[in-house]
What we know:
alpha/beta; 6 strands; Rossmann fold; globular; 8 helices; six-stranded parallel beta sheet; single chain; 42% helix
Amino acid sequence: MPVITFANTKGGAGKTTAALILASELAARGNRVTILDADPRGWISRWHALGSANGLLSVAQVTEETIEAATLRAKKRGGYILIDLPSSQDALLAKAVGLADHVLIPVQGCAMDAQGGAEVLELLKALSDTCEVRIPHSVVLTRVNAAVTTRALGAAKEFLGRRGIPTLSTALAERAAYRDIFDKGGLLHTLDSREVSNLHKAIENAVSLTDEVLAQLPQRSVRTVSRKAPVLKAA
């Protein structure tokens, strides 16, 4: 039951979008997924309330006081656990990071979100230096213009690499589907390609991102659910 925490203390970095896109693809592959929505704005909870999400995907709103118990319950349910955090540096951030098998730090570009990402990296370093708790982590570039040149994207990754910051090769592109899913509900794979432009490109991007994220996780057995088998109802 791997736990992935999405953290950046700056708003607008793409945490919620990255969490939902990863969850959508994992559920489409037959995995149980629990999203712990720790953001008071509750964007993922609002999306879930629209309905039509795969029954494998459950969403629970949590707070600093309830996140640990909610994580234990999600582990009993099985599958993947994704924690979407608010844009703040507080005890909730520390708890969510401490619960994680991997911390994913979404960064929009490499300048505007640098400070928010740096604060998460500093927390991870402090845990390593003072508590000898080493939590694997990586940066994912988000809201990258689909038309951006490979050279420009490579330069951004090189910028982070020179500073010793592990960065995923796959960036989360700016796609209409990633906005529409919040309005329409459901998963990427259930959106109507006649209504959403370049849906196939968005799905390709989600598949690539998910493959790379999974490669970062501890090699544990995560049971998938047969598409023909009965599944749990969403919470």
